[in-house]
What does this fold into?
Amino acid sequence: MSFNCFTMLTIKGDPTSLKEFKVKAQGQDTNLSLVKLHDKPKHLDTEWWLEKQFGLTHELFTVEEEHTEKELNYGFETYDEPPFTWLKEISKAYPHLEFAIRYYDDNEDEDNEEDRVCEVQARNGVLGQPIEVDINKDNEPRN
It folds into this structure.
């Protein structure tokens, strides 16, 4: 994985549940606040808490968003790899929603210089296996 890993989070569900999630996720400096979604104890240092809980060094600062009535999409960067631990925990906290993260995987195979796009889905605290996603020039999955 690269130092900066771009990740696209997709959340699917009924419009009411998605609206509630979006409101709960709204933080002071980000539209996807882990501190707000997981009710971080006020007496704990944010960076320390994020590291212990999810292996992250900072809040998720969204750089891209696109929402519809039945789907929320947040794009953000993390260090090293996507937030798999967080994905498992958030899907457990919101079992009525479906979560998936799509990320660019730096291919470290010297014989193959192409990066891969992979996706991991989560529901009810269970992570699926990463699957490679074939995308076209518009960054959409090919059927």
Observations:
- The CA atoms of residues 49 and 97 lie 25 Å apart.
- The chain has four helices and seven strands.
- The chain has one domain: 4-133.
- The mean pLDDT is 82.
